[in-house]
Write a structure and sequence with these properties.
With 309 residues, this protein is mostly helical. It has one domain. It contains 14 helices and no strands. The relative contact order is 0.11. The model has no long low-confidence stretch (mean pLDDT 89).
Length: 309
């Protein structure tokens, strides 16, 4: 619990830099949500200790305590129906802070979910997972801001991770690592070209031709198309679900990932298929090369896209 609190407080100065109204508003939203979730976790721990006379959390025998714990972790991770803060907060902060929020900040709650997975309630987990993948797909359909699209993508990926937490927790960790690599690569590309909207991508070929190809590959990997890395965890998760006879859940998850693929394809179309000499109706933007470091982009792209082949 203390680790989670320190984790929350440590990122808030990063979110509020540079100091302006939008950053501060996002940081307050994030803080209130995380503080509420932490209080529920503390309540679950105390309730479990009161009912069972033990402070351990790895095998929680009390059903209410595990339910509260699962819901609190769902709030921390931004799973539906507690997902409303994720797009708002991600949209209001800079790209670098957004990258940390959607990658590094997921590690602590996921590790707790991994540790308490033997005592979790399957029905609640499946409900959270399916609603997250569906809402993560639907929410991103009408967005034009890339940060919001990546936030909804994060919600959908968290749904995939949650559904397998009880059956095979190791797959949840594998999915998290591949998701972190792909999201970091995407944010680094956007940060390098200072791009935050879809229409700004239409002239990406003018800024950097290799970057357009990189963004296309990363997005296809995030969507889970073979033979890219992003296909591997989805394939393994669907396989596990079918082995354990959860065929309806597997069908719903597979169909909901098509929603994600749709808005990824829209970004790909804008950035790569509107290249010269095809007609492009959007205005050119002034672009100057900035001395930002790019050494991470190649390695992250290789991990997030080329691992499976």
């Amino acid at each position: 619990w203390m680790g989670l609190e320190i984790n929350t407080l440590a990122i808030i100065p990063m979110m509020t830099y540079p100091n302006n109204m939008r950053n501060t508003e996002s940081a307050i939203k994030y803080f209130l949500m995380q503080a509420t979730a932490s209080m529920i976790i503390m309540f679950a721990i105390i309730y479990n200790a009161w009912m069972t006379n033990q402070w351990t959390l790895f095998q929680v025998s009390n059903e209410w305590a595990t339910t509260f714990m699962t819901l609190a972790l769902a709030m921390k991770l931004g799973l539906a129906p507690f997902h409303f803060w994720v797009p708002e907060v991600t949209q209001g902060i800079p790209l670098t802070s957004g990258m940390i929020l959607l990658t590094w900040q997921k590690i602590a709650p996921t590790s707790i979910l991994y540790q308490i997975s033997p005592s979790l309630n399957m029905n609640i987990l499946v409900l959270l997972a399916v609603s997250s993948t569906l809402l993560g797909g639907w929410g991103g359909l009408n967005q034009t801001h890339l940060r919001k699209i990546l936030a909804y993508s994060s919600i959908a990926h968290m749904g995939w991770m949650t559904v397998i937490a009880l059956i095979n927790p190791s797959l949840m960790i594998l999915n998290l690592l591949i998701y972190i690599a792909a999201t970091m690569a995407m944010f680094l590309c956007l940060n390098l070209t200072s791009t935050t909207k879809i229409n700004a991508l239409s002239n990406m070929w003018n800024k950097s031709a290799p970057m357009t190809i990189t963004i296309m590959i990363i997005l296809l990997s995030l969507g889970g198309l073979p033979p890219l890395t992003g296909f591997m965890p989805k394939w393994l998760i669907l396989q596990e679900l079918i082995i354990y006879n959860n065929i309806a859940t597997a069908m719903l998850l597979a169909l909901s990932s098509l929603l994600n693929l749709f808005f990824y394809m829209r970004i790909i179309y804008t950035s790569t298929l509107t290249m010269f000499p095809s007609n492009n109706m959007s205005k050119f933007q002034w672009f100057h090369t900035s001395p930002k470091s790019t050494s991470l982009i190649p390695s992250m792209t290789i991990i997030s896209a080329m691992l499976l082949p």
